[in-house]
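Throughout our pipeline, every protein is held as a single compact record rather than as scattered files. Nothing more is needed to write down the fold, since each code stands for a local backbone conformation. The record that follows is passed on verbatim for readers who wish to inspect the format.
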Amino acid sequence: MAGHNKWSKIKRKKGVNDAKRGVLFTKLIREITVAARDGGGEPDYNARLRLAVDTARAASMPAENIERAIKKGTGELEGVNYEEVAYEGYGPGGVALFIECLTDNTNRTVAAVRHALTKYDGSLGTDGSVAWQFERKGQIVIDAGQYDEDSLFEIAIEAGAEDVIADEDEFILTTEAADFVSVQDGIKEAGIKPTSVELTRIAKNEVAVTGRDAEKMLKLLEMLEELDDVQEVHSNADIDEDIIAEAM
């Protein structure tokens, strides 16, 4: 499982309850707004916006919310000016963390991120301290119960996927960032419907985290994800499977 975005899988398995759905919608609205601001309001000509809209629809966000967020980004409606910032740091056990944020107040955001890290024996690092440990990749997740592995592998590789991993009840397709959209198009044309898609950062090497450090790491990841300003948290932690099972 080296290089696999295990935290993403944990989030998928735990699902999104009503209390956290509002936080998720806030993050998605910000991403849609910024994507539309930077690349225009047409998803067909803006890959980042297309991904954000697809993700929002998969999360059952109402169409009017999506449209309003796009219009705020294009300036048709008044909206907040969000800034993209990233923080690098360390969690319990010395694992690397790359935290991507969209915020209208960087002082508030860095204070909240620092508080979460400190609470669970982590710390902020300097710019560039951990970014080199991650690669920008696309990940496409497909329900293993719906498709034949050999056929899916052939379709995925033909579409340009870098790798296909069979992981229990799902297949995980990994792509180069530049090939992410074309691979999505290729598998959809073959009649394959993903359960989730994301452009993410995957650790080049993972660090095993067990015992109390693993428990603290899971709590830290959850606390960071619950911050409105935090969009994505990337970690190179290979968290003990028993701890994951207890948390879920």
Remarks:
- Strands lie at 83-90, 96-103, 123-124, 134-143, 163-167, 170-176, 196-203, 207-209, 230-235, 237-239.
- The CA atoms of residues 1 and 63 lie 37 Å apart.
- The chain has nine helices and ten strands.
